Amino acid sequence: CETCSKEEAKYRCPRCMKYSCSLLCVKKHKLALSCSGVRDKTAFVSVNEFTDLNLLSDYRFLEDVGRTADAAARHCLVHSPATKRLLYCLRNKARGCNIELKTLPVGFTKRRENSTTFNSVENKFYWHLKLIFPHCDAEYTLKGVPDDKTLADILKPYIDPVESDPVVCQRLKIYTASPQSDVRILMKIENRTRNSVRYNELDASRSLLDNLKGKVIIEYPTLFVVLKTLKNDMVVLGQDGSEPAENSDSESSSLSSVEEGEIRDSS
Hints:
By secondary structure, the chain is of the alpha+beta class. The protein has 2 domains: 1-40, no CATH class; 76-227, Ubiquitin-like (UB roll). It has helices at residues 23-33, 52-74, 81-96, 109-113, 151-159, 166-171, 173-176, 208-212, 254-264; strands at 11-12, 19-20, 100-102, 117-119, 124-133, 138-146, 183-188, 199-202, 216-218, 222-227. It is globular and about 65 Å long. The protein starts with 10 loop residues before the first strand and ends with a helix. InterPro entries: BCD1 (IPR051639), BCD1_alpha/beta (IPR057721), Znf_HIT (IPR007529). This is Box C/D snoRNA protein 1. Residues 238-267 are annotated as: Disordered.
């Protein structure tokens, strides 16, 4: 057992592959690692390890996606005039700000979660925003974030040693203990193949709207907050969109896989 190191292991977690001996140790490992215990259906499997069970799993996954997409297409909200007007307005306003906003069918998780609105009186977006801190395996969801707020101000309640919440500060202590100059804010570039995942680095001193201009967004922005001093395999493109001089072959990072799975998730 990888939790108590005392008893013989009887169970293996489908998510993180940790061995446990009892229900108590299973619960402890889920709490310690923030593990859901649910198998990641989008996890990478090499050709050498690919078996008939993996093939069957992929087939069932595609069947589930097909059923969900069909159910979403039949959903009454899809054909609601009010819903169509709202989505058209959001996409049109985003296009006017040089942002390509794409929406998913009703049955998808990101479509259901998204709370982004546009205030026509203030001529301002209030974004649904997700912050992911990969070095601490933590993520937070923000609602109603005004588009004129700088990224530095958005991050203050999380990584600022003085202004952050004590509980959050403790969880993200690796960030709060690091110099602010080491913090990098990345956003994944959409519409790329799965084995060619790339990120844009955003400017913390500029507003959320300025950083989103010229970008493709699926439902709402997801920002990855990383540290320069810690090694990671998230490939960042240059300001001109060119590949970095030194490129790692480990492009299909677990972070990217998780996010892709989340976008494709339909339950």
